[in-house]
Design goal:
about 400 residues; alpha/beta; Nitrilase/N-carbamoyl-D-aminoacid amidohydrolase
């Protein structure tokens, strides 16, 4: 018999982030979010805060193509370990207030794969211990050099685990079943569906989502996709984005806020729709969610008829094992390499149709030409110039 869970307050932190070059920059980011947690816990005191969600790359920041691009060596210099002093500091804050703290985009080095870093999300419990760790699955080729488990899938499966429960973990807690997915994971339905399959009730969703990807009207890609993820899986979704960023090569509103809290019907409860620091809060009602799931009318799990959809995934689209041990991607251009195989496969299947007068192979060549032009004109760094002392 399940135990009743009282209503509680969840905070979503929308901080100003500095793209760190070293431990000094990491500490600045860490101290800032800890102060914002102190504020939120004190301000929303009547219904106690039990959960805090921090954005992607809140500790170290991330870089994109162009003059400010960092290569693998620069990222490895600021990679941290879990456990480690940064998680200890957040763990102390969790113990102080009896909180669960979720965050993501941690540039993490793991002992099993020392030549690369993972984009890691985590949940810390009230004891101060890390109780969930997730390695981002859908790492886009055009930003960041984090390793997806899929990039080394055979090795990852052998050393860490390859079951859906291992890859998309959900932890059962006294505030409900918590899970996490990171930024680009929410752009397609598969990761949230895997978490839903594993029983997630509160989906903590750290992002560093840029305006160029549609955070604001009129595109507003961020809101309609994340409302859909919450609706389809009948779970809360707490999405945290940056408020501002400090980096010489970014506009200050590169990731322009719009952090939000969505309920299990897909309705937005709270939002910070601007590029500035903020803390938003909403009441989480797990008993209400569980009651809602007991109804068969418009129940998005009861009517799942899965057999035929297996055909979509029988054959790989993005190829696995493209960056095995000893061969991490050195640059964003390197990371984009497998996309040529993906394009070739999508056109070969007939999923995509080339523009008039072009063939499928033309489309692969077009990507190669774009990458070459970008490198030759300084828009994308060449592999031998990626780190350049940075």
């Amino acid at each position: 018999m399940s135990k009743r869970i009282d209503k509680y307050t969840a905070l979503v932190i929308q901080p100003e982030v500095t793209v760190a070059e070293d431990r000094v920059g990491i500490r600045k980011n860490l101290d800032r979010v800890c102060n914002m947690i102190d504020f939120g816990v004190g301000y929303f005191l009547e219904v106690p805060v039990r959960l805090v969600v921090l954005p992607e790359y809140f500790l170290q920041g991330v870089t994109t193509p162009g003059k400010g691009e960092h290569g693998i060596d620069s990222f490895m210099k600021k990679a941290i370990t879990i456990p480690g002093p940064e998680m200890d500091a957040l763990g102390a804050k969790a113990r102080e207030y009896g909180l669960y703290i979720a965050g993501g985009g941690v540039v993490e080095q793991v002992p099993e794969f020392p030549d690369r870093w993972f984009n890691t999300a985590f949940v810390i419990g009230p004891t101060g211990e890390v109780i969930l760790r997730y390695h981002k699955w859908h790492v886009p080729a055009y930003i960041g050099l984090g390793c997806s488990p899929h990039d080394i899938f055979d090795e990852y499966r052998d050393k860490i685990g390859g079951d859906i429960k291992n890859l998309f973990p959900v932890v059962d807690t006294d505030i409900g079943r918590l899970g996490t997915m990171t930024c680009h994971d929410g752009c397609t339905p598969e990761v949230s569906r895997a978490l839903g399959y594993n029983g997630v009730e509160v989906l903590c969703h750290p992002v560093a989502l840029q305006e160029v990807e549609g955070v604001s009207d009129p595109w507003d890609f961020w809101r309609f996709t994340r409302r859909t993820r919450a609706h389809d899986n009948m779970c809360y979704l707490l999405g945290s984005n940056w408020g501002k960023v400090n980096y010489d090569y970014y506009p200050r509103a590169f990731c322009p806020g719009h952090s939000l809290i969505i309920d299990y019907t897909g309705m937005i409860l709270r939002e910070a729709p601007y590029p500035e620091e903020q803390v938003i809060a909403a009441t989480i009602d797990i008993e209400g969610l569980r009651e809602h799931r007991s109804h068969i009318n418009h129940n998005c799990w009861i009517d799942v008829r899965a057999e035929v959809f297996r055909q979509i995934y029988d054959q790989p689209i993005y190829p696995p094992n493209r960056f095995p041990s000893g061969r991490p991607p050195r640059s964003l251009a390197d990371k984009m390499g497998p996309c040529k195989e993906v394009l070739r496969e999508l056109y070969a299947r007939g999923t995509f149709v080339p523009p008039a007068g072009r063939t499928a192979e033309d489309m692969v060549q077009l990507l190669e030409d774009r990458i070459r032009y970008a490198q030759e004109t300084g828009r994308l760094r060449k592999p031998d110039a990626v780190d350049g002392g940075r």
